[in-house]
Amino acid sequence: MRVHRQRASNRILFLFAASTLLLSACGQRPFLQVQFCVANAQGVDLFKETLQAIASEEHMRYIDGSEATTRDLKKLRPAANNMHTDGGLIYVGIEADGFGLEGGNLGLNPYDISVGFGPDTVAAHAFSKKVVARLEQHWALKVVPKNSGAFPNPECSQGNGSAT
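Request: output the structure for the sequence above.
Response:
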C-alpha cells in the first residue's frame, strides 16, 4: 500500500509539474514562468482577485481549480511535501482561444506562487506583459529559468515573505 501511495504522490507531482511547465493550450512548455511570494492569506485573495479582474478585462475565462484539485489529492493521499491537502492549495488559470496562464502553489510553500504563460505566440506574449505588469504592482517577481521549474523559496516559507 505504501508503494502505491508513493507512486500516486510521484504521479501527482509529475502532473503538477507538467501542467505548470507544459501548458494545456498546446502541450508546450511555457515561454515564461514567474514565481513570487504573496506573504499571507490576504495576498492569496489579492492574487486571485487580480487574476479575476484581468480575465474580465481581457474577456477571458478565469478558472479556480483549487478545491477540485484538493479533493483529488485527498483521495490519493500523497506523501510528498507541500501538497496542501489540509487546505491552502492554489491552482488557478486564465484561458482564451489558444493561450493563457496557469498558476499555483502545489509543491511550493503555502504563499509561494508560480505562474506559467503559453504557448509561445504573439498574443500570449502581449498577454503575459499585461499580467506581469499587474502582478509587479503587488509582488516582486522572479523569472524561473527555462527547463528548470519552480522550487520552494525558503524566503517565502510559511508566510515569511512580503508583498511589495
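The chain has one domain: 2-159.
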